[in-house]
Amino acid sequence: MTGARSGFALLREGNLPIVEGALILQDETMGGIALVPPVIGGVSPDIVDPAGSGTMTIRGYNMLDIDNFGINTIPAVEIGGVDVGAVTALNSFTLQFPIPAGLNGDVSDVAVLAPWGRHTSFDRVAYSNRTEVRCRMSNVNATDAASESPFSLSFDSLLVNGSSGDELNEIILSRNGLLTIEMLAPPNVTGPASFTLWIDVGGSAFEPGPGDVTPRGLNGSQGSTCRPFNPAVKTFMLNAPRQIVTNLPIASRLNGPRNIFLQGLIRDDASSDQGGGPTESVTNGILLRIVN
To answer: Whole-model pTM?
Structure first.
């Protein structure tokens, strides 16, 4: 080996953030070898109970290093700069660990730290002791978490103005703006995907309460909606990767500040639905705050 240097590599995968820190080795017989740093593709769940129950999954690239002797090196994980403790690597794409306890209201970065580099996720973890907030997490694509794909975590099908919202799935819009609601097809669906979209409009203080959370499907296997929506509503058919449900000026429909809650149910071939027949999953929920 003629020399080694440590430096920084910039890597962008779609909307993934810049990766920090790569070790680059130069060998005169093998050419250049880059030990590529880990890249986080997603974190699930990202709205969690402050008590710290359950398991968190990180998906991405380069999450495990196996040397020539078959010895595994597993990265450390930090949430809010605090080490989470023991981490299990299911494969080179997947890390899992018990969700650590946190403070209600905290929103924290998630970072993977390895000898070959580190990466901080776009996804941040929000701690909430409110079940009516945690139910905003998408249940779409739930059973795909064990597959060897770096981006096969829960999937946000429902978007408002191209976004699923902040860490608590909330969006603030001006009443003078444009409202565009879209539904994206789950990544595992083959063929058209039927979906139901529920929209609740209330006053400026309206939002789902703890008594509104409603399990869906057999034993709640489709997930839970944050409102006890009437199932007898219009069902749409999604024949393309994405569909605009509505696209209109907000002021044409609302005459003042309002809160709007949106959530849906969509066909999903990777659903945890136990009901038999075409499987469905509860989508992410979005609380839309319309201000003057």
So the answer is: 0.81
